[in-house]
Design a protein that fits this description.
single chain; mainly alpha; two-stranded antiparallel sheet; two-stranded antiparallel ribbon
Length: 229
C-alpha cells in the first residue's frame, strides 16, 4: 500500500498500519531516551522505555538488592551459574546462564515475545485509542490513481477505487475478465453434467425432456416474432 512517511514526507510502499518509512522507522526505534517519571520519588529524568527509577533511586535500589543478594547467598538460596534448574513453563531441566533465567532455551523465545506483546498492548491501551491509531494510519496514506477512472485519491483503507460508482465498475470488469478466462472450462463442465444427466434418463424420459426443450424453443421463437412486428 502506498504510504507517506509522517517524519520525512517521502512516499513508500508499506503495510496498511505503517506510518514511517523504513529509514525513519529505524531512527525512531533508536531514539528511545525520553523524559520519564520516577516511580519512587516522582522526579522527571531521561531514560529508556524500561527506566522506572531516577539515578538516585536506582542507586538506592541497587544497594538494597545487593544487600538482599548477599543475605540469600549466605543462606544458600542463590542459584549458581552453570547449575541445573527446571523450566517454569514445561518443567524440563536447563543449565542456568543468568540469575533471572526462568525458562529453558526452547520456551524462552515464545514466552518472552508473549510478555513483550502484552506490555505493548497495555501501553497502547493506556496512551492511545483505536480512533487515534486509525487517524494516524489514514493521515499516512498517499494519493493513488483509481484503477477505473484514473483520478488521484487518498484511500481510507485497502480500496483501489475512488467512489462507489467506480467500485461497482471494477466489480463488473472483474466479472467480465473472469468470464473471458473461464468460459470454455465452464461450458465444458456444464456439457459434462448434461451428458451425465442424459445418460441416466430412460428413453421415455429423454423423449419427454426433448419435447419440453422444443416447446420452450417454439415459445421463444414466437415471442421474438411478435416483438419484431
Amino acid at each position: 500500500m502506498r504510504k507517506v512517511c509522517k517524519y520525512c514526507g517521502v512516499e513508500f510502499d508499506g503495510d496498511p498500519g505503517a506510518s514511517a518509512c523504513p529509514d525513519c522507522a529505524v531512527q525512531v526505534h533508536k531514539q528511545v531516551i525520553r523524559q520519564r517519571t520516577c516511580r519512587t520519588c516522582g522526579v522527571a529524568f531521561p531514560g529508556g522505555p524500561r527506566a522506572w527509577y531516577c539515578p538516585a533511586c536506582r542507586e538506592e535500589r541497587r544497594r538494597q538488592q545487593s544487600h538482599e543478594h548477599k543475605q540469600r547467598k549466605a543462606f544458600g538460596k542463590v542459584r549458581q551459574i552453570g547449575s541445573t534448574a527446571h523450566c517454569e513453563a514445561c518443567g524440563q531441566p536447563y543449565t542456568v546462564s543468568s540469575g533471572l533465567q526462568r525458562y529453558c532455551p526452547d520456551c524462552a523465545p515464545t514466552l518472552l515475545r508473549k510478555h513483550k506483546n502484552a506490555a505493548s498492548k497495555a501501553w497502547n491501551a493506556a496512551h492511545t485509542t483505536p480512533e487515534e491509531r486509525r487517524a494516524v494510519r489514514k493521515e499516512s496514506n498517499a494519493a493513488i490513481p483509481c484503477m477505473v477512472c484514473g483520478s488521484m485519491f487518498v484511500p481510507a483503507g485497502p480500496s483501489r477505487t475512488c467512489s462507489p460508482h467506480c467500485a461497482e465498475e471494477a466489480k463488473r470488469q472483474a466479472a467480465k475478465s473472469w468470464e473471458t478466462r473461464n468460459r470454455e472450462a465452464r461450458n465444458a463442465y456444464r456439457r459434462g453434467l448434461y451428458a451425465e444427466k442424459q445418460a441416466a434418463m430412460s428413453e421415455d424420459e429423454r423423449r419427454a425432456h426433448r419435447d419440453e426443450i422444443n416447446a420452450r424453443a417454439r415459445e421463444n421463437y414466437k415471442k421474438r416474432k411478435e416483438r419484431d412486428v
